[in-house]
Specification:
Order of helices and strands: HHHHHH
Radius of gyration: 23 Å
Number of domains: 1
Distance between the termini: 44 Å
Structural class: mainly alpha
Helix content: 55-70%
Length: 139
Amino acid sequence: MLHSLRYRHVCSVSFMYEDEDDDRFEAAARLAEVDPAQGAAALRSIVDDEAFDPDTRFEAAARLAEVDEAQAAEALRSIVADDAFDPDIRSEAAARLAEVDPAQAAAPFPGFAPRAPRGPRAPQAPRAPQAPQAPQARW
């Protein structure tokens, strides 16, 4: 019984932290609507806080672009240059940076090359039907 109580406590603590992070992000986004300067500072602190998951940090940088483009450009550039972020997030940050500050987006990023946009796939010839195979016995 003690083990199950301890397990529930650990689980509830981890959910509490996730909820706190979500609450902090939502509070920062709402603050940005009311007080852009303080909201920008709160969003930037989330971008810089490695305790947040990378998706939330990127989302904070994207929201920051709505309030303070200069800070957003710095935040997005830091995400693009950071190997800790998934390549897809880094590519999204590079694309968003190009919208916010084309000059910074044009500057080289050490160790990162954005993925080229994928065009439509060329049609492939249909494959010839294959004859059904007899089931193989497993021993």
